[in-house]
């Protein structure tokens, strides 16, 4: 392709995922939300469809596909249920990708096949109670004890708001931790794989959240949790660069999730404006309503274009045709615009639905609750503006 347009293969794939989402997710989304229940039984079905292995090479059970295909899948899942959309987004972007990008062949062979098949989930432990956007302020520590084959990392600390970290099939969490001090006085940050069930590793009770009720989210604590020295992911001290790269990719995925939500709001608002009557005629004849729906259509189209441009650049970078800086800038722009557009879309949709929009029997109420986190996770809107400004060459 010479431009960031979706191929016929991408659109055919979209149809497959949309059918799955419509038949297997949409009928149950409201109930899962009410019950605050993570539908673990859905994960193997998503694995069977190949969703977790889209960007994973065939040697580890994946399809060896492009990042754009992953964004298509996340958008379509997010169109019917944001909780399931983020399960895929985090499962691949934060669970699989760090192992795929930085793991040894032994680590990949151990963890990836089950993750790709949907038999297991992995999580990424970055955020802490006192270290969110300022990830360099991490207080979790890991010290290396022993020598040779008996050497172990001993992890102490806590993580917060970690997706897919406490399910019955969560197999491993990649944890960023201070492993020393650099020559310039900054902390040395490394990434360490901590398997579920490791003594000293505790998954805290699930959070009571505003939205994403069917997504699995927990705090994690580490009290002398010991893992073998070969559980270091990538080079010692490379953790900071690793998670920055991981977040760049994750921002494009969250942008796709936001596009799915905005698209759902557009579809719901359009249908409601056609069928809801007031004063003897459909409310859509009123410009106060029709203009808002038109604005929704514009924002959805713009968000989608920015998202798939970023995904296209990401795929070109993988082929060596675009720079890291180009992808980083495009990812931040897409994430900033799309997530704020999604939040605004839910506000507009709820307003168009009027009193019904405030009732949980209508999906726009769930959309409204689910939207806000999009502007926070994977880097807040404020962080995206910082990244964009630096990308323009403004002083930091």
Automatic annotation (TrEMBL):
Residues 123-223 form the Acyl-CoA oxidase/dehydrogenase middle domain. Residues 237-392 form the Acyl-CoA dehydrogenase/oxidase C-terminal domain. Keywords: FAD, Flavoprotein, Oxidoreductase. Its cofactor is FAD. Residues 7-118 form the Acyl-CoA dehydrogenase/oxidase N-terminal domain. PROSITE patterns: ACYL_COA_DH_1, ACYL_COA_DH_2. It comes from the Bacteria. Belongs to the acyl-CoA dehydrogenase family. PANTHER family: ACYL-COA DEHYDROGENASE, ISOVALERYL-COA DEHYDROGENASE, MITOCHONDRIAL-RELATED. This is Acyl-CoA dehydrogenase family protein. It comes from Angustibacter luteus.
């Amino acid at each position: 392709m010479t431009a960031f347009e979706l191929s016929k293969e991408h659109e055919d794939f979209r149809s497959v995922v949309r059918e799955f989402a419509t038949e297997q997710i949409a009928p149950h989304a409201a109930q899962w939300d009410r019950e605050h229940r993570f539908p673990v039984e859905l994960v193997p079905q998503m694995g069977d469809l190949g969703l977790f292995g889209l960007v994973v090479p065939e040697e580890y059970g994946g399809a060896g596909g492009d990042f754009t295909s992953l964004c298509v899948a996340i958008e379509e899942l997010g169109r019917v249920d944001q909780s399931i959309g983020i399960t895929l987004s985090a499962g691949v972007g934060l669970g699989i990708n760090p192992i795929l990008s930085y793991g040894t062949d032994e680590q990949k062979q151990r963890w990836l096949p089950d993750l790709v098949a949907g038999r297991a989930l992995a999580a990424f432990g970055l955020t802490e109670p006192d270290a969110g956007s300022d990830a360099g302020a991490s207080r979790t520590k890991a010290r290396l004890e022993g020598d040779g084959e008996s050497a172990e990392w001993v992890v102490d600390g806590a993580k917060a708001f970690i997706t897919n970290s406490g399910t019955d099939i969560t197999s491993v969490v990649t944890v960023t931790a201070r492993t020393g001090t650099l020559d310039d006085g900054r902390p040395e940050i490394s990434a360490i794989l901590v398997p579920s069930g490791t003594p000293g590793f505790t998954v805290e009770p699930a959070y009571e959240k505003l939205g994403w009720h069917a997504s699995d989210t927990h705090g994690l604590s580490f009290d002398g949790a010991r893992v073998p020295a070969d559980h270091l992911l990538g080079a010692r001290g490379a953790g900071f660069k690793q998670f920055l790269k991981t977040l760049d990719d994750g921002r494009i995925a969250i942008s796709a999730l936001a596009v799915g939500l905005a698209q759902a709001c557009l579809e719901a608002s359009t249908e409601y404006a056609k069928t809801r009557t007031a004063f003897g005629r459909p409310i859509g004849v009123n410009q106060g309503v029709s203009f808002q729906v038109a604005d929704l259509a514009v924002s959805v189209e713009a968000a989608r274009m920015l998202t798939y441009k970023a995904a296209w650049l990401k795929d070109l970078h993988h082929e060596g045709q675009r720079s890291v800086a180009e992808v980083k800038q495009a990812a931040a722009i897409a994430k900033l615009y799309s997530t704020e557009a999604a939040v605004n879309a839910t506000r507009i949709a709820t307003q168009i639905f009027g009193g019904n929009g405030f009732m949980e029997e209508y999906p726009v109420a769930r959309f409204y609750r689910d939207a806000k986190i999009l502007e926070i996770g994977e880097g807040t809107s404020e962080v995206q503006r910082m990244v964009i400004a630096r990308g323009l060459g403004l002083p930091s």
